[in-house]
Specification:
Keywords: Glycosidase, Hydrolase. It is built from 16 helices and 30 strands. By secondary structure, it is of the alpha+beta class. The strands form seven sheets. It has a nine-stranded antiparallel β-sheet, with helices on one face. A five-stranded antiparallel β-sheet has the order 19-24-25-26-29. A five-stranded antiparallel β-sheet has the order 22-23-30-27-28.
Length: 682
């Protein structure tokens, strides 16, 4: 089963252990700490995810037994990690999981099952280094509650002076030194529950809810059911190489573990960091900060399947708008400048000043996510009532104030920046930065018109006259003013103009950009890079060239649990969701050719010959859900769920030839595989 990863030994590097997370809690299996979403300790550049002691760090051991067979399994279909010890007379299984829908709960269970007719008691020892203390929290023990131990405490240092210090409340089932299956028993299970919340009431309520489910034997199955429902709503399956199928299942497991469940009203989501909730302690995985990684690399995949979860990511940015406005003001600009590294407040928390000061493209990346969401959902409420317009307006104001007019070129310039390629800094007119700034301004004008608000002339003037470097002789985009062809580049930069920015250019220029930057991009650079080269070559129908780029990603996938490392030598962040997000986009936007535009969802499939079929289920578009089944010869699509808006027109598929198919719920249409788009019927 390509969705189940099994090994007889754990990786030597504990960073490569699989994670069990939900939208609120996260840990690596057999790790002594867990993290809580949005709970950071430390001031500005020192702020990091606060370490909470983890009661889940328990290992089964059987001393003195040599003939034991051990297996370790991550089952991405059930969202559960298990450790099994088997001897001739019994099997003992430990299951560990973060409950997907009851996000304040994590649990592990141990089951001992007799395999023979003996009547000897069977004892499994439990090993744990758990101590109810933390370097980041001032923890105090409270009275036991329904058999659980209880601690609570505040983080030690606020992110900004005078700012909030979150409180963590934790209840957990005490763990004995050993468990024994009695001589008359054939099988027995023990369940251990951990509940974490920012209020005592929530922690106790969640613990009680967990106990009620345990009493009916349905705690774990309530988790696996919620996980299965979520997985049904975002399936990407292909008939092709096993390694590719496994990589897909691994990426979907780790990324989708991080998103809020569908019925999580009232739950405040605090974004997704490059290494996810399981990582981000001090000095690790960028301290758990939120980067453009979330908005550019992870967000588009989430949006295509789960617009509600995508909205929660945007709401995180809206809640941190005030901090972003302070960042702009501190640097002498108007509007909002989103931080290169964000935690709870939106203030810049990058420990190195140069990135926060110069890597300003992140502000455009944030707005690009808002634009993709708007085009895919037409959710006016987010912009009219829930703070979206204020953010859009503030970003437009920032870009206008950040530009200077060049009398020589009669164009606006953005000077002194670091592009996505971090090997260069203090450059003028980064092609990517300026293109994303222009896109921000065009989108801001569009939203203003949709909301019947006046569009400032300055926005349209700055957008139309902003320089995006282009070499008319060589017909390619220099990375910035003065870039010399052949200069080494750290990661995907100019190639992002084609996708996701969809900056206007001919196929010849798109090819030239790919040809120019592919050989000079650092092979040891971050994992998401090669996915974008793959998408570019797929756009040009150079399928084998695309595949050779995508295969480079496999250097970053570690065995046996498909945990990604940021760099191919194993260094950098681990459980690198950014690389996984890029890889998923190569499948979801590359193989299918999906492109989100103002009025339609385009498709133009292309994939290698060793993939015979690609099936993408539950794509969300304008309130509808669609299934796509694509082979080299034929594309079949079906609307499985229609928009709840009674005034919305039904969808139709239009082929480049002009042929048109109405899309009615429950009816599939098929046509020869080729380019086209989906739109609302006129």
């Amino acid at each position: 089963d390509p969705a189940v990863f099994t090994a007889t030994a754990l990786p030597a590097d504990p960073r490569l252990l699989p994670t069990v997370t939900n939208a609120y809690l996260g840990t690596r299996v057999f790790r002594d700490i867990l993290h809580v979403s949005g709970v950071y300790s430390g001031a500005t550049g020192d702020t990091h995810r606060a370490d909470v002691p983890s009661p889940l760090n328990v290992r089964m051991v059987v001393p003195g037994m040599d003939n034991l067979a051990e297996t370790f399994t991550l089952n991405t279909r059930t969202g559960t990690f298990s450790h099994t010890i088997q001897s001739t007379g019994y099997v003992a299984t430990q299951q560990i999981y973060a409950h997907y829908s009851l996000v304040h709960l994590m649990s592990f269970s141990i089951t001992i099952r007799r395999l023979d007719h003996s009547t000897q008691p069977i004892t499994i020892q439990l090993q744990t280094s758990f101590m109810p203390q933390s370097q980041d929290l001032d923890l105090t023990p409270g009275p036991d509650f329904q058999g659980a131990h209880y601690i609570y405490g505040q983080t030690l240092v606020p992110e900004v002076e005078g700012g909030p210090r979150p409180t963590v409340h934790m209840l957990w089932t005490p763990v004995p030194l050993s468990l024994t299956l009695g001589g008359e028993e054939q099988e027995r299970s023990w369940e251990f529950l951990t509940s974490v919340a920012e209020s005592e009431e929530e922690a106790k309520q969640s613990y009680s809810e967990g106990l009620s489910l345990m009493a009916t034997g349905s705690l774990h199955c309530s988790h696996t059911h919620a996980w299965a429902v979520m997985c049904q709503g975002c399936s990407v399956e292909l008939d092709g190489p096993l390694a590719l199928q496994q990589a897909l299942h691994g990426c979907l497991y780790y990324l989708l573990s991080a998103i809020p469940p569908q019925d999580s009203s009232g739950f405040l989501f605090h974004g997704i960091s490059p290494g996810g909730l399981s990582n981000g302690t001090q000095g690790e995985d960028y301290w758990g900060h939120i980067f453009w990684d979330q908005d550019t690399w992870m967000f588009p995949n989430i949006l295509m399947f789960y617009p509600k979860a995508a909205r929660a990511i945007l709401e995180y940015r809206i809640r941190t708008l005030e901090g972003a406005m302070c960042n702009a003001q501190e640097q002498g600009y108007k509007g909002a400048k989103f931080p290169w590294e964000s935690a709870a407040t939106g203030r810049e928390v990058c420990p190195e000043e140069i990135y926060g000061a110069q890597e300003i493209h992140v502000t455009g990346d944030v707005l690009m996510a808002f634009e993709q969401y708007y085009c895919t959902t037409q959710d006016q409420k987010l912009f009219q009532e829930d703070g979206g317009w204020e953010l859009v307006e503030a970003v437009a104001q920032y870009w206008c104030s950040r530009m200077v007019w060049s009398e020589d070129e009669q164009l606006y310039h953005i000077r002194g920046v670091m592009p996505p390629d971090e090997y260069h800094c203090h450059v003028d007119n980064s092609a990517y930065t300026n293109a994303v700034a222009r896109r921000s301004l065009n989108f801001a004008a569009e939203v203003a018109r949709a909301l019947l608000l006046p569009v400032p002339e300055e926005w349209e003037d700055c957008a139309s006259k902003l320089k995006v470097p282009f070499d008319a002789e060589r017909k390619y985009h220099p990375e910035y003013d003065g870039y010399s062809p052949g200069e080494p580049v750290k990661q995907a930069d100019v190639v992002l103009l084609g996708f996701p920015l969809m900056h206007p250019m001919s196929a010849e220029v798109r090819r030239n950009d790919l040809e120019m930057y592919e050989p000079v991009t650092d092979l040891a650079g971050p994992a998401m890079t090669w996915s974008m080269f793959a998408v570019g070559w797929l756009e040009l129908k150079e399928v084998q060239r695309a595949q050779s780029q995508l295969l480079k990603c496999f250097n970053n996938i570690t065995e046996p649990f498909k945990v990604w490392s940021e760099n191919s030598d194993g260094s950098g962040a681990v459980n690198f969701l950014t690389g996984m997000g890029g890889f998923l986009q190569a499948i979801l936007f590359g193989y299918t050719g999906f492109r989100i535009t103002r009025s339609s969802l385009h498709f133009n499939p292309a994939f290698p010959r060793d993939i015979t079929k690609l099936k993408v289920s539950s794509i969300s578009y304008l309130g509808n859900k669609l299934d796509f089944t694509i082979t080299m010869e034929e594309t079949r699509m079906e609307v499985t769920e229609t928009s709840q808006d009674p005034l919305a027109s039904p969808l139709e598929a239009v082929l480049e030839s002009g042929q048109c198919f109405s899309l009615w719920e429950g009816q599939s249409v098929s046509f020869p595989t080729g380019p086209g788009w989906i739109q609302r019927s006129p």
